[in-house]
């Protein structure tokens, strides 16, 4: 079990980088939003498969850079339409 913000940081490490900073901050918001929109709830926990069809999670603890970018955006989610991403286009 991972704390939500540790989860976000580990996905950032696995799927992107913590630089450039503004891109990494935007990515953390997208990761957190995708989790909120697509995870199943089990009590107080959110569950989502570790799959290339969803989000890939680093097995290692998050790097300092990823934790820093995640902390900058802590608890922020995109509150508009659902986020969908495939290949090189977002819809």
TrEMBL record:
Residues 46-65 are annotated as: Disordered. InterPro entries: SpoIID/LytB_N. Transmembrane segments: none annotated. Pfam families: SpoIID (PF08486). Residues 2-55 form the Sporulation stage II protein D amidase enhancer LytB N-terminal domain. Residues 49-65 have a biased composition (Polar residues). This is Stage II sporulation family protein. It comes from Chryseobacterium mucoviscidosis.
